[in-house]
Amino acid sequence: MEEEMHTDAKIRAEIGTGCSPRGPGCSLRHFACEQNLLSRPDGSASFLQGDTSVLAGVYGPAEVKVSKEIFNKATLEVILRPKIGLPGVAEKSRERLIRNTCEAVVLGTLHPRTSITVVLQVVSDAGSLLACCLNAACMALVDAGVPMRALFCGVTCALDSDGTLVLDPTSKQEKVSTWLWKGRGLEAKGPESPQWDWLQEARAVLTFALDSVERKLLMSSTKGLYSDSELQQCLAAAQAASQHVFRFYRESLQR
Amino acid sequence: MKETPLSNCERRFLLRAIEEKKRLDGRQTYDYRNIRISFGTDYGCCIVELGKTRVLGQVSCELVSPKLNRATEGILFFNLELSQMAAPAFEPGRQSDLLVKLNRLLERCLRNSKCIDTESLCVVAGEKVWQIRVDLHLLNHDGNIIDAASIAAIVALCHFRRPDVSVQGDEVTLYTPEERDPVPLSIHHMPICVSFAFFQQGTYLLVDPNEREERVMDGLLVIAMNKHREICTIQSSGGIMLLKDQVLRCSKIAGVKVAEITELILKALENDQKVRKEGGKFGFAESIANQRITAFKMEKAPIDTSDVEEKAEEIIAEAEPPSEVVSTPVLWTPGTAQIGEGVENSWGDLEDSEKEDDEGGGDEAIILDSIKMDTGVEVSDIGSQEMVFHHVGQAGLELLTSDAPIILSDSEEEEMIILEPDKNPKKIRTQTTSAKQEKAPSKKPVKRRKKKRAAN
């Protein structure tokens, strides 16, 4: 345990080093997943990416309210709860994204007029939250035994202002860049003046959900400015990263 | 989802077992389940497991103005949420009774007992105080939520560090965690709730009931105590009638249990502090056991992205160029522009549908295509797919087909529409005689708002 602690401490220090699109050097953070940790839900999984941690619980296929039932397939519901405060609009939009991804993958027609509920709880947020939620949801659905046509995973990339790609960014690397005025007074000095501080972080943050069969794109959610070639580059990088994530899934399920 | 009802034979079995002093999980009458406390990487974040009941706690702080009648005290806010993953019966809107009861008990236990020194949370009297917010989320319900929640709350509060603030005369400086180490809250004592479940009208009691035992119990007695044997809160629910010596006996048991639990908490806090100071790894990743078959870890994995650029260029080269559907805005008059073309009206033959102009007044007019039917204009004749948004002066929007003559007029009278629900359709615009088409009604509200803005 001790030596593990040491090497892990070293690795932790290098978390999320960026890389140029040419050189190999991007890396995913330390992953961990535990399944079946809750006794009440039909399936549960806790997924950790570095310091970001999400707990997912799945109930289903179960009884559905008549108002929500669909006659020929299962009603999929996703609930995302933040750690602090009440859920707001951002959570609702993420729920939608995750739900659309799950609906594309879950074989709902095998269980008509039932409900499959995925409940996600943010345990800690240190960057790449949406990707971590997707991964946790997938592992929880597998743990619950919900029939799916493929597994899916989420990968986040951040683009620096000079086009450097960073996979699985930390929350520091994810902040979209801005100028910070730290001087006094209202003089509108330009960025060259020393009183401006360049909070350099990402120019764009892109999250993709990819499926396991052909690594096709299931969902994409982006924030910021990027060109179409950068989009394709990020997508290709995400596909390369998803290979590792799926290998992690396979190894963790094989135990 | 509805809660699965407890069968009669299961209920009888549980009660008979309790009468014979046996519990399903093999515990003794006064035994607690295993308590496991793990901390996250941020300060103030912890997960407490009481057997299988799991509660996540997080403390956060914010600078706010104080309450008017307590200008020198900080504000404490507690919120316990029964997450839907904790039990299938916990749906939003369904759990209000239990939720209110638990929240109220937690508040009484932690706020009224004055375990946190709120005076120390004051920064500038009357202007800025710290608001400490404790969010608890129940992740798995296996009985005895209140005990687990109270332990999680007090552990999170003890673990939390707030940013350091210094006041020099009139100047208040808030230091970030990088500038100065954050400061712990000042906690006087640690109140912990202990629950006692009563069966058979108070004859038998069990400490720390699990979910099955809670279902068959008659009543519950909760005593919140600290390690100095001071009772902070006591609550008896369920309508059981207890004798005085029963309550005294329970409080003695609670004293013993609270002492054990407090020791456990202090040890866990100390361990975490030691690990952080030594620079070792801390956080939830550490609390996932290595050897468990359901858990798996993978170290940092490098990804080779050297061919990313080539792949991207390939894809872009092979891709078809985007189609020329990009429409440019066309400016008709100042204040009116058109982007894109609409689709054919899909409403069909609708009669007698009317719309009220609820934005008040004859200034604005809305045209409904259905109304035009009555004036002999057939929508079906309109084969054209094009539509034009046309803002006539200040008065209203109108839709015309592209081959209709566009008449610009600032006259308001001509566009007035009289709203009388009984009468058959409204007056048609006199300006255009050609048939009109209209977009789907979903566009209407947008149009109306646009009008309002343009009018102003």
Tell me what you see in this structure:
The complex is a heterodimer of chains A (255) and B (456). Chain A is an alpha+beta fold and 255 residues long. Chain A has one domain (31-178, 200-254): GHMP Kinase, N-terminal domain (Ribosomal Protein S5, domain 2). In chain A, 30% of the residues lie in helices and 31% in strands. Chain A contains 5 helices and 12 strands. Chain A has helices at residues 2-13, 89-105, 129-144, 171-174, 228-254; strands at 26-28, 31-35, 43-49, 52-62, 75-81, 115-124, 152-159, 165-167, 178-181, 196-199, 204-211, 217-224. Chain A has a 5-stranded mixed β-sheet with strand order 2-3-4-6-5. A 4-stranded antiparallel β-sheet of chain A has the order 8-7-11-12, sandwiched between helices. A two-stranded antiparallel sheet of chain A has the order 9-10. In chain A, helix 2 packs across helix 3. Chain A is globular. Residues 1-24 and 181-198 of chain A have low confidence and may be disordered. By secondary structure, chain B is of the alpha+beta class. Chain B has a domain at 35-283: Ribosomal Protein S5, domain 2, CATH 3.30.230. In chain B, 25% of the residues lie in helices and 24% in strands. Chain B has 9 helices and 20 strands. In chain B, strands 1, 2, 3, 4, 5 and 6 form a 6-stranded mixed β-sheet that branches. Chain B has a 4-stranded antiparallel β-sheet with strand order 12-11-13-14. In chain B, strands 7-10 form a two-stranded antiparallel sheet. In chain B, helix 2 packs across helix 3. The longest helix of chain B is centred in the middle third of the chain and has 35 residues, at 244-278. Chain B is extended, with a radius of gyration of 35 Å. The interface between A and B is large, with 69 and 56 residues. Strand 2 of chain A pairs antiparallel with strand 15 of chain B.
